[in-house]
Amino acid sequence: MTAAVPVIRQTAALAWRSIVTTIRLPQAWFPALFFPLVLMAIFTASFGGAPGTIPGFPPVRSFLDFAVSGAIIQGVLIGGTSAGAAFATDIEGGFFDRLVASPTSRTSILTGRLGASIALGVGQALLFISVAAIFGARVDGGVLGIFIVVVIASLFAAAVGGLGIFLALRTGSGEAVQGMFPLFFALLFFSSAFFPLDTMVGWYHDVAALNPITYLVESMRREIIGGATIWTALTGIGIALGLALITVGASALALRRRLRVAA
Amino acid sequence: MMKGLAVSLGLAGRNLLLVRRVPSVFIPSLIMPLFILIATSGAFHGIGSLPEFAGASYLAFTIPMAATMGAGFAGINSGMTVARDLEGGFFDRLQSSPAPRVALIMGPMFAALVRSIFTTTIVFIAGLIGGVWLPGLLPLLLIYGFALLFGACASCWAIGVALRARTVQAAPIMQLVVFLSVFMSVAYVPASALHGWLGNVAGLNPVTYILTASRSAELTGSIIWSETWPGLVAGFALLILLGVFALAPLRHLENR
């Protein structure tokens, strides 16, 4: 217990530093908020005629309700990429080496950065739901539904943050981490983030059906548009948790390897 | 005049050489139009069953947008090259040479146009693989022409930003405006299917008329003048406006 207290304190301090750094750099937070909101607005205005008209489109009050969960996942992906790039900048700029040379716990180096990613993910989920609500969207699942959406967003933020940290530790280059963004963007498009899976055809449908992002988005979407069950909620939470365990585990191994090489 | 053209072509050749020498910068912009074509036509395939599409293939509907976006990427890259040259001092050396000033803009723009032809061809080949036949020679040339027109506009915009900012860090501004100009038009659905604010914005957006004209050629396989001339007027008006935007800082740079 006594050993855990400094780790928690250091984690909180490093997470706070990451959050403040992100806030101070508009290029770090602006794309993660601006692009999902703009695309949500453009898609809603472009595809507003789809619900109730297109075969395979789920029953929704409006396309905006349908679009919210995709915007959250998109924001988390962009935010996680920026967080990974910021960690790489810490490595490039020598802050990481100074941390390692100090009596800071190794665990808190990871958990601090992950804490900031999770905080950003929670903030994005709440902001996007609020903005959509201003324009008429409703969360069918109520407060519990919002809570489940936020939980999935935070776990997915941990997963993307873990991947960003892993890439930063392996490459030590912010540019290389940012270079992963097109891949994330592709993952998003090859899923049901922006349009229903049942309206896709052929190989594109098959790829989207294999993409875990499809199930994350669908799980969140059910809480918003209706039709959620314990099973849909657990599916989303389980997939996000599984992805987080894999990427955070990989980043912990990458940290150990980097420290061993440095020693 | 001939000297200016020769310098412009020389600079264009140098820019195109950079495609081979710095592939990490340029390859994404060559792949992106292909990605946009596949991702848009795949993800939003279902929207093609709206009555406003009148049974048209959504892949065919997307081809002009992907070609336009590819040309836009080529234009953005010409601005990034100018910004990099400004940071590295190459632009200053060019300015101290007897090369006509306008060639400093025309060179990178010519390179963008050549790359636009390349990306548009890639988009058409991908369309053929997806089962969309070419629309006929004249409509095909018209689609290439509109892609080149938009590529030139994007190039003028990006070079204008580069000459003002003098740093490659201004790239997000170059990209953002080009992206939004395409997305806030009839990129995904026809004008009649747009809802709310986007219908008004798209009506004021010149890219809407460029895309509508290009799409008309692709989908009908013929040139419908009533849909083509608004695209030509909007495109050339935008080019003149952005050409002035790109040329204006040159005089200022000479006094630095």
What is shown here, in short?
The complex is a heterodimer of chains A (about 260) and B (about 260). Helix content of chain A is about 80%, strand content about 0%.
Biggest sheet of chain B, open or closed, and with what strands and sense?
Answer: none
Low-confidence stretches of chain A: none
- In total, how many domains does the architecture of chain A comprise? 1
Number of helices of chain B: 10
Terminal-residue CA separation of chain B = 26 Å
Mean pLDDT of chain A: 89
The N- and C-terminal alpha carbons of chain A lie at a distance of 29 Å
- Helix fraction bin of chain B: over 70%
Radius of gyration of chain B using CA atoms only? 18 Å
**Rough outline of chain A:** elongated
**Largest β sheet strand count, sense and barrel closure of chain A:** none
Overall mean pLDDT of chain B: 88
Q: What's the multimeric state?
A: heterodimer
Q: What structural class do you assign from the helix and strand content of chain B?
A: mainly alpha
**Gross morphology of chain B:** elongated
Estimated share of beta-strand residues of chain B: under 5%
Chain pair forming the biggest interface: A-B, 32 and 31 residues
